[in-house]
Amino acid sequence: MCGIVGYTGNKNATEILMKGLKSLEYRGYDSAGVAVFTGSKIKTVKEKGRLKNLKAMLLETSVEGNTGIGHTRWATHGVPSDINSHPHTSEDGKIAVVHNGIIENYEELRVMLKSKGYTFKSETDTEVIPHLIDMYYDGDVFCAVKKAVSHLDGSYALGVICENEPDKLIAVRNRSPLIIGAGEGENFIASDIPAVLPYTRNVFFLDDGEIAVITKGSVNIYDSDGQAVEKLPETVNLSETAAQKGGYEHFMLKEIHEQPKAVADTLRSRISNGKNVKFDGFDAETVTGFEKICIVACGTAYHAGLVGKMVIEKLAKVPTDVELASEFRYNEPLLDNNMLVIAISQSGETADTLAGVRLAKEKGAYVLAITNVAGSSISREADNVFYTYAGPEISVASTKAYTTQLVAMYLFALFLAESRKTLKPTELDIVKNELLNMPETLESVLELEGEIKRLSKEIYKETDMYFLGRGLDYKAAMEGSLKLKEISYIHSETYAGGELKHGPIALIEEGTVVIAISTNKEICAKMDSNIKEVTARGAYTVVFANESTATQHKECSDIITMPEVNPLLTPITSAVPLQLLAYYVAYNKGEAIDKPRNLAKSVTVE
Ligand code: F6R
To answer: Mutation test of ligand 1: which of 74, 306, 328, 350 has the most ligand atoms closer than 8 Å to its C-beta?
Structure first.
């Protein structure tokens, strides 16, 4: 989604802003711009398209100064265009604003501002903000911003500069992330940490409603009433190289290969030496008190939730529902204080999931967040947080964040089962020990890469594919299908094996590619019947099996055999080859793997 950077110090602000915007490219954008103090004037340059277009513009116009703001925009209100790009300015160009989020009442604000004589150049919701600030400006930009934001409904992270008060940045956060990077004789703002990592690891996390006044030598933070807030910077432990490709052609491939480590780090955060899973913040009474669980998430995180439901019910015997966050919030869910709501979100910023968290809390449910981003909105609003340790995930298609979400689900199910004594310790130990071995197992799964590359060459020219599975394999198939369509743009659908003959089998014809996941010995014969049904109708069938089920599937066109694991854990081992399949199919097609069309990394709009 949109990205914000801001700088004030002694260096060339334009260069720092462009570098920061580059590091935020992964968020997805369709235009970019900067506004910089050049001498006594603010110069604003913005351009539709990729950053290289903006760079070319900046070569034509000299934009040099020591303070400025920059933005990458992902269109919501108004088409991608030069005019709709940020920064937006007051009519005289003296106030410039970058904004992430959505101003919900912008139409009424436009009417009000027009009645006062303001004119609008763009179709955006954002343009009301510089006009509002201008309306209140009386020699103090902080006061004007404070008054202006009191009119705004919606979500906004803002960076503001004002020509009359040079070398000062104003930053505001409300339901959209914004951090301040604290340097030596220089300070930064950014919507995401990687933009400041080349310069500092000391970061102030703004809370909703806070406004910061930033100069090169000072950071002063105020609440929405203008009262000073005492806050110290926190040190973040992300390395710069973690945010780079590390020799792989794409971030996605790098991140697929990082999964053994990501899984190990996530396991280590909660369990050591085969001991019980630890979960701070849950007292014994709370854990045994939950009568029901509801998991709320979107996209890939929702798929992790589907696996979580099955595992929690199997191990901990707590009835569990899974809801798409975008449905949950509008379906009047039955929630009370005997319920646990688990919100899964890699970014911790997904608007619908965040709204689900707020609704659950309002109704008295206990909220556990499972997220990969420390300081994210969801992590801050939940009652308890399980951080996954995937590290920064740059590629838009989620891979290591997903497998660490699965690990979080297993660990939580084990924790519940241990606390509620629903299974014998020896039964739980079997799952726990295999889970602890997962990093090594994933190393051997990654050795299938050569085979998957070969398979991808056979099928990459297809326009449609179907995924099949039963039980947990069905959930794994759903994620495999999503990954494929996201980055290869091949149409694909997933069906539970038993559902085929209730309609979808009508789609099968000579050469149709059907990918079946079959890892469960108990039901692989049933799966094999489904495979035979489609083979008989001409399908090209590829089976992802494991050592114990491969022998069952003799009539398929191709088979990939994964290492054997406990049947409960197979969604983790199936995820990796299916990610590799999506990757190599998209690679053969020459697609923009890390930045698929129409998608954004963090979906902060509803
Ligand atoms: C798919 C993908 C998306 C996200 C979804 C939720 O690869 O990344 O489907 O899973 O947008 O995002 P988070 O987990 O950030 O809430």
So the answer is: 350
Looking at domain 3-244, does it have CATH number 3.40.190.170? no
Residue 602 above 80 pLDDT? no
CATH class for the domain made up of 447-589: alpha beta
Q: How far apart are CA 172 and CA 155, in angstroms?
A: 11
Kindly report whether the peptide bond that precedes residue 439 is cis, defined as omega within 30 degrees of 0: no
Report pLDDT for 107. Answer: 92
Is the CB of residue 300 less than 8 Å from the CB of residue 349?
A: no
Domains 3-244 and 253-440 share a fold: no
- Residue 60 makes CB contacts below 8 A (sequence gap 6+) with none
Residue 556 contacts residue 453 (beta carbons within 8 Å): no
Separation of alpha carbons 586 and 577, rounded Å: 14
- pLDDT recorded at residue 27: 66
* Domain ranges across the chain: 3-244, 253-440, 447-589
H or E element in which residue 30 lies? none
Residue 51 has φ and ψ, to the nearest 5°, of -60, -30
Q: Is 552 helix (H, G, I), strand (E, B) or coil?
A: helix
Residues with C-beta less than 6 Å from any ligand 1 atom: 298-301, 345-347, 350, 353, 397-398, 486, 602-603
How far apart (Å, rounded) are the C-alpha atoms in residues 401 and 378?
A: 16
Examine the pLDDT at 241 and tell me if it is beyond 70.
no
Give backbone dihedrals phi and psi of 477, rounded to 5 degrees, phi first: -65, -40
Best probe residue, ligand 1, of 192, 303, 346 (max atoms within 8 Å of C-beta)? 346
Helices (H), 377-448: 377-381, 400-420, 425-436, 438-446
- Residue 143 annotated among the catalytic residues of the structure: no
Backbone angles phi, psi at 280, to 5 degrees: -65, 155
